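If your schedule permits, I should be very grateful for your opinion on a structural question. The matter concerns a single protein, recorded as an amino acid sequence and a row of backbone structure tokens. Could you please explain, in whatever detail you think fit, how the structure tokens follow from the sequence? I set the record out below, with my sincere thanks for your time.

——
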Amino acid sequence: MQKIILITGASSGIGAECARAAVATGHKVALAARSKDKLSDLVQKLGPENAIAIECDVTNPDAQRAMYDQAVDHYGVIDVVFANAGLGATATGTELGDIDNFREMILVNNFAVTLTCKFGIPHLRKSKGHLVLTGSQAGHVALSGSVYSATKWFIRGYAKNLTNELSEHGVRVTSIDPGMVETPFFDSPQPQALRPEDISQAFLYAVDAPPHARIGEIEINPMIGAHRA
């Protein structure tokens, strides 16, 4: 069944690959990010009949409200919200970390996600839809002093809290928690890492599950010693 999927952080990496996979399987997408040029290029490749680009700073509540308004004005409904926008650390640990990076990580990885969820919930209650959050394996282990890891622990717990809040309204919630993924998140190639395509398969598995099935959490990690095709 065709679904309308809104994706934040959609201009590259996991968000862009999930958009490609969604359109390839018959869904339509609303793509949000700060980089309008990258989004526009992606929309042209996916086809304007399948995708729209929405410039949005996810840390700005008014921008997120406008994002939803634009998506609904275009498609009429939203079936899936993928809160995917995220930011990594510029240094390891707390003592050596950068204060401005702490602030931006918490704003993007946590505050902005709560905005995406808050403003998306009324639409998903109408459609009996699905809320998907990008977590991380960093939210499953205690990484020494890592503020980034702490932001992903938040996502993991928040997804469970949202499940408790939304299940009675027919809204499914899934946290996708990958290990290292080779994306622009990193400054150098990571040949041992997962690929964005691996995460898009997990995303579609959750989104395309039958309505009576709820997939609460997907852990996906690189296979140690395996060689990628």
Observations:
- The longest strand covers residues 172-178.
